[in-house]
Amino acid sequence: MGQWLSCLTDLANYVAIKRHRAVLFLRPPGHPDRFMSLNSLAASLRERFRQRGITSDLDEAVELHRAALLLRPPNHSDRSTSLSNLGLSLRDRFQLQGIVSDLDEAIELHQAALLLRPPGHSERSSSLNNLALSLHDRFQQRGALSDLDEAIELHRAALDHLPPHHSIRSTLLDGLAGNLRVRFKQRGIMSDLDEAIELHRAALELLPPHHSMRSTFLNNLALSLYYKFQQHGTMSDLDEAIELHRAVLELLPPCHSDRSMCLNDLAHNLQVRFQQRGIMFDLDEAIELQRLALELLPLHHPIRSTFLNNLAISIRARFQQRGIMSDLDEAIELYQAALLLRPPGHLERSSSLNNLAVSLHDRFQQRGALSDLDEAIELYRAGLDHLPPHHSIRSMLLDGLAGNLRVRFQQRGIMSDLDEAIELHRAALLLCPPGRSDRFMSLYNLALGLHDRFQQHGAISDLDEAIELNRDALLLCPLGHSNRPVSLDYLANNLRARFQHRGIVSDLDEAIELQRAALLLYPPGHSARFICLNNLAQSLQERFQQRGIMSDLDEATELNRDGSLLCPPGHSDRPMSLNNLAVSLEERFRQQGIMSDLDEAIELHQAALLLRPTGHSDRFASLNNLAFSLEERFRQRGIMSDLDEVIELYRAALELISPCHSNRSSLLRNLAFNLESRFQQRGVQPDRDEAFSLYLQLSHLSHAASRTDLSVAKSWAAFAETVNHGSALLAYKTALKFLDQQVALLSSSSHHFDAIREAVSSLATDAFSCSVRHGALTTAVELVEQGRAVFWTQLARFSTPFDELSVSGDTGTALAEEFKQLSFRLRNAFDQSTEDQSPQIRQLTMQWDDVVSRIRMLHGFSRFLLPPLFSDLQKAAEDGPVIILNASLIWL
After folding, report:
1. Closest CA to 663 of 836, 447, 439
2. Predicted structure pTM score
């Protein structure tokens, strides 16, 4: 049916144009009716242009209207009509080709027509409206608010000249509403938007149900309601906008020229509703509608790039939900196709550069190709280069560039990337003053950057500022606002981070209350509910660790159980949800000793492991967690099959991690401990031999030692002493080397002294005893002096080699500062040690080793962070013997 209607329309246009050409031919220059024929042919060509988008039709219409105007000299009664017709055609051509001279001429023509239509003229309101529309277009092109203000006043004047039921009153009401909506977007004055919505409603009331403009007016009201939703987050506004768009579609036949645009608008609103409620049906419908809209557009239609872009946005959103890489690849191809249709100079080129950059960032997150991340950064920079200083999307591009620089910092550890990111976020925030709908996101992004820098430098002022920014963002999201749950969660996360840094439990209490409030705002079925449940459960577990209140642990367990129900088989987060519940049950078992909790935890870890096959990035964690739980059950029940499985699991986990992985030393200890346990049960010597071969790997550690590495080295030394193994002395040497590195990584603040005292304990004296027992007297002196120096330097704040380096000249001062910053970042990385941090630890370790090597090249610092040599210590005995008294629980 639609194809027949389209054919009939085309045929009618063809016949009309052919007839008007024939008549014009019969009315040569000088004929009294030639003006009428020129106008009639121009009108038919303009109508066919609207139907089929043929540029030559519009160009010919413009020339015909020019010819007609020449036939209406000044003072002619029809001159205003001819001026108006030519102005309307030039405006159409401007909207098609973007040639500003066409728009400027259209405005001059409409102004001239208005002068010929004084107050009281029957067409004055029409001229006021035409001039207002053209001024609106010029505002869109040049951004001069004076054009927009004048357009609004012209519309108001036009309405004042019309009786209540005039035929064009509804059109003027709708036009005024549209300009007020645009002014709201510029200045953020809600009264403009509220008035626009009321005017749109009034315009609709004046139209009968089947009026030809009803679909347009419905669409405009929907657009204003959408903007109101963006401002207040009231879902009823968005729901009404969607229903209005559906009503528009019902009024448009299948091949109507506006149908593709309406399909696109409805799809956009459905996509936004999906973002709020997480209902996949809305997103799937949006994608199908956008595909239909794109099919209705000819290949060279001027808005094709917009439709390609919108479809890409929705497909990318579906990728984010379902993780299907083909969706992401298709989105990137669509963005690239849109970019090709927006060459340099195109108004939307920067927007296309931004969207393509966002998707390349996504692909980097999936595949880890840094080339995608680098390209995204360059696209953002190119997008910013094309924008004037106060363009409406400049803040978005600044935030996007900053976000990608932040990610690149996390990959490569280059602090200049993070510092630049924070400055860009600050610049973006300055472009989003109070009242701007995107201020919330700018506040949040700056808070993220400051949080990242806090993790690197430990400056609590960065975290405090991030929290204040989060509080400001929350104030922009009152009850009922769609972003309120997200804002509550962001603030809670930073408060929890501050608790972890300062230990003030009130921060954790507030975080928990905020997370509870956020959870109430995520209804069952919302895609973000699982993450919110997970965050609240983690906070409650932390508070349990602080206060030991079992109700917190029980609630965390139930929340994790609820989270697992939200992740049925096949869900991408199911293994994580199973793991979280297992961890809570294990903790409850340790507190209450109920074996059913431990058994369930083991079953959950086994199920999670099955969902993380060989090659999965989290398989190591699942192997380790299951081994840990089975180890606990072996201690409880003594079933050897559990112990055998523990050993195999730890071996499998060890094969998955690199020699410089941050968790390698603890895994070596766990495997060695269980091998020794099996040796004690069965007496098979290879088990003990393997245990010590694992510990021996510590002496070849390729990265700066963490606190865990030091602890494992001490365990090795204690174990070797217990069974009188020959590796004991090497174990002590390794532990003291790690201790030196740990001291270097720590700051000089007093709260680190207890950690040093605990780490040193009797380590140096026991090492001395072991060395003497093995006849290594020179080594004994070196080791006991090494341990003594560490302890007393920290206790008495004696001058350290680092202090001496800081005052040794410009080079030394610069190296000292570089060493200090890298040490701090390494300590933080070790404290937050996860699989994700391992590449960062490797990178930081390489930088740390490099700066240590450069320090040792300086005169007088060749032994920087190395134990003293006996030959140097001998000098202390030049004036008499030095007697060393040693007290150790280990017998000589």
Report:
1. 836
2. 0.58
